[in-house]
Design a protein that fits this description.
mainly beta; 2 domains; Jelly Rolls; 6-stranded mixed β-sheet
Length: 194
């Protein structure tokens, strides 16, 4: 996972990937995306983008807004199927987001909520008011959970997480999270044994 800041007029030149699931989640600003599948799109805060690189793609991203930096998370996961036909998907997730609970934005099921990838992974994001306690039930007992604090702070068991902290949890079926401040949290449930 990369936590990237891209200055205005800057970006990542064209580069290749294959057999990788690439997920981008802008946190502020906007990036222009172009790829070898002829996709040209602007991705901005409140959206999620996924590329299944499969047999191979080239792509690039640029911040065309000279006056505002763009901040985004980019996550790479190995797929559970190799050499698939490359694909691209982008969705807005903020329109039906519920406060003080986790909202699914990615799964392995193309008919499910959010975008989908070739991997048994689920991503959820949420905004929580201070002192809100929430539970997350893992979909697969063999998976692990990576918690990333976008903003604020939270308590998980004895562990306090502050802004930009990450925390890995495995060998559990449920996690209880208490927001210590108004917080924005990303959960990434992923296979531990691949």
């Amino acid at each position: 996972m990369n936590d990237d800041w891209v200055d205005g007029g800057m970006g990542f030149g064209e580069h290749p990937h294959d057999n990788m699931e690439i997920i981008s989640i802008p946190l502020s600003g906007a990036l222009q995306h172009e790829d070898s599948m002829n996709n040209v799109a602007v991705i901005e805060s409140g959206e999620i983008q996924v590329m299944s690189a499969g047999t191979g793609i080239y792509h690039k991203e640029f911040n065309k807004n000279q006056g505002e930096p763009a901040q985004f998370l980019q996550i790479w996961l190995f797929p559970n199927q190799r050499n698939v036909v490359p694909r691209y998907q982008q969705k807005t997730y903020t329109s039906d987001m519920r406060s003080n609970e986790f909202n699914q934005i990615l799964s392995p099921d193309q008919h499910d909520k959010g975008v989908w990838i070739y991997q048994d992974a689920w991503f959820n994001i949420g905004k929580f008011d201070q002192s809100t306690v929430t539970r997350y039930q893992l979909k697969n007992k063999d998976n692990g959970l990576y918690v990333f604090m976008i903003q604020g702070s939270a308590q998980i068991g004895e562990q306090t997480l502050n802004e930009r902290d990450g925390y890995g949890i495995w060998e559990t079926e449920e996690v209880i999270i208490e927001a210590q401040k108004n917080s924005r949290i990303l959960l990434m449930e992923v296979p531990m044994n691949y």
